[in-house]
Amino acid sequence: MSFFISEAQAQTAGAGAPPGGEMFQIGFLVLMFALFYFIAIRPQRKRQKEHAAMVAALAKGDEVVTTSGILGKVNKLDDAYVVVGVTDNVELKFQRSSIHAVLPKGTLKAI
């Protein structure tokens, strides 16, 4: 049993880190974070700002698509909710954030 312990001590005594290895690891981590920021975080924030601006600019009569894929025309607006007219006498109430896109005028008639 003592044979294995002395062997392990001999291995750790001879192993040494190469000079400058810590700086390389820190530099690598900083580079990876910067890459992750420019690939994932920054574009997502840009999309969130665009969506918030689109939701804030909603007006009565806009033709919209919800995140669930329902097409309709905005009939009423509230601070937190939007009433979307889907067909005659059918209105659905959605949260403002569930509006996915605003369509060009006349899209619903073309479909």
Order of neighbouring strands in the sheet with most strands: 4-3-2-1-5
Secondary structure class reads alpha+beta
Give the fraction of residues assigned to helices.
40-55%
- Beta strands, count: 5
The amount of beta strand, in percent, is 25-35%
| Gap from first CA to last CA | 81 Å
Sheet with the most strands, sense and barrel status? 5 strands, antiparallel
Low-confidence stretches: none
- Radius of gyration, in Å, reads 29 Å
Total helical segments: 3
Shape, per Cα inertia axes: elongated
Overview of the molecule:
The chain is of the alpha+beta class. It contains three helices and five strands, in the order H-H-E-E-E-E-E-H. The protein has a five-stranded antiparallel beta sheet, with helices on one face. The protein has helices spanning 2-14, 21-56, 107-110, and strands spanning 63-66, 71-77, 81-87, 90-95, 99-103. Strand 2 and strand 3 form a beta hairpin. The longest helix has 36 residues, at 21-56. InterPro entries: Preprotein_translocase_YajC.
Quick description:
With 111 residues, the protein is of the alpha+beta class. The protein has 3 helices and 5 strands, in the order ααβββββα.
Chart the SSEs and their pairings.
Layout: H1 2-14, H2 21-56, E1 63-66, E2 71-77, E3 81-87, E4 90-95, E5 99-103, H3 107-110
Antiparallel strand pairs: 1-2, 1-5, 2-3, 3-4
